[in-house]
């Protein structure tokens, strides 16, 4: 899952970013409204954490602009404004949730997981494909009861493939969802991670799930 964190207080933005990366999320950070709007319009984020008081454009205005452009990324407002009228303004602009500073990271993380599990985003807590199971909450993976140990990026990659099971996923799509804005899509990192993941998922099983589509990308599916 890829998240955009927007806050002009660098200390807070970096604190959130570090915490989310430790939870295996890919994270981009913007420190002003103009940069946030640009990134949100060109990248397919799974969630956006948006401060209200920002330079150039305030968070509420950014939210309105994104919704007007039919960009339906879940938005969690994070701000020092705790008055009811401010929350109502945020929700009316299209925000999905609202958390007031100061906050505990555990609560922020819990709210993020709730937003990512909402039916509108087609998320469930346990993904299943032909005996392969991935628990999005505990990060446990197993196939036919066999536990599979995954590294951070392997988990994110497998989650993305399973969320799009049966669909061909290009390298560009993987780089957008699994890595962040600074990722060099011309490197062979994606191929290496897919190969390692395939070895873990398909080793010892006659029915292979991860397939390479020459010139197109990869697909996770039951080919039996």
Word description of this protein:
- By secondary structure, the protein is an alpha/beta fold.
- It folds into two domains: 2-121, 3-Layer(aba) Sandwich (Rossmann fold), CATH 3.40.50.2300; 126-220, Winged helix-like DNA-binding domain superfamily/Winged helix DNA-binding domain (Arc Repressor Mutant, subunit A, Orthogonal Bundle).
- The chain is built from eight helices and eleven strands.
- The longest helix is centred in the last third of the chain and has 14 residues, at 189-202.
List the helices and strands and how they pair.
Blueprint: E1 2-6, H1 10-22, E2 26-30, H2 33-42, E3 47-50, H3 59-68, E4 75-79, H4 84-92, E5 97-100, H5 105-117, E6 126-129, E7 132-135, E8 141-143, E9 146-148, H6 152-163, H7 171-178, H8 189-202, E10 210-213, E11 217-220
Parallel strand pairs: 1-2, 1-3, 3-4, 4-5
Antiparallel strand pairs: 6-7, 7-8, 8-9, 10-11
Helix pairs in contact: 2-3, 6-8
* Highest-level CATH class of the largest domain: Alpha Beta
Secondary-structure class: alpha/beta
Q: What is the helix/strand order? A: EHEHEHEHEHEEEEHHHEE
pLDDT averaged over residues = 86
E-strand count: 11
């Amino acid at each position: 899952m890829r998240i955009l964190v927007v806050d002009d207080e660098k200390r807070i933005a970096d604190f959130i970013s570090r915490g989310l990366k430790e939870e295996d999320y890919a994270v981009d950070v913007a420190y002003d409204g103009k940069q946030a709007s640009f990134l949100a319009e060109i990248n397919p984020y799974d969630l956006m954490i948006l401060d209200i008081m920002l330079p150039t454009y305030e968070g509420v205005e950014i939210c309105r602009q994104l919704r007007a452009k039919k960009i339906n990324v879940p938005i969690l407002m994070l701000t020092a404004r705790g008055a009811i009228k401010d929350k109502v303004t945020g929700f009316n602009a299209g925000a999905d949730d609202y958390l007031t500073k100061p906050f505990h990271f555990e609560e922020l993380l819990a709210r993020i997981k709730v937003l990512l599990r909402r039916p509108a985003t087609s998320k469930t807590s346990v993904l299943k494909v032909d005996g392969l199971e991935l628990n999005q909450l505990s990060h446990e993976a197993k196939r036919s009861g066999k536990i599979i140990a995954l590294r951070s990026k392997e988990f994110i990659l497998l989650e993305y493939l399973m969320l799009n099971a049966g669909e061909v996923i290009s390298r560009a799509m993987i780089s957008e969802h699994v890595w962040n804005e600074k990722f060099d899509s011309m490197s062979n990192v994606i191929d290496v991670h897919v190969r390692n993941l395939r070895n873990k998922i398909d080793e010892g099983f006659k029915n292979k799930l991860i397939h390479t589509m020459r010139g197109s990308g990869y697909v996770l599916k039951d080919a039996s």
